[in-house]
Amino acid sequence: MKIIIQKFGGTSVSNVNHREMVIKKILQAKNDGYSPVVVVSAMGRKGDPYATDTLLSLIDASNTAIDKRETDMLMSCGEIISACVLYSMLKSRGVKCIAMTGGQAGIVTDDSFGSASVIKVNADNIYNYLTDGFIPIIAGFQGVTETGNITTLGRGGSDTTAAILGEALKAKEIEIFTDVDGIMTADPRIVPDAKVIGNMTYNEVFQFADEGAKVIHPRAVELAMRSNIPLVIKNTMSDAPGTFIANNYKDGLNKHLVTGITYMPNRTQVSIENDAIDTETVFNNLAENKISIDLINIFPTYSIFTIDKECTEKAVHILNKLNIKYRITENCSKVSVIGSSIRGIPGVMARIIKAMKRNNINILQTSDSHTTIWCLVKYDDTVKSINALHKEFGLSD
Question: pTM here?
Answer without folding.
Answer: 0.87
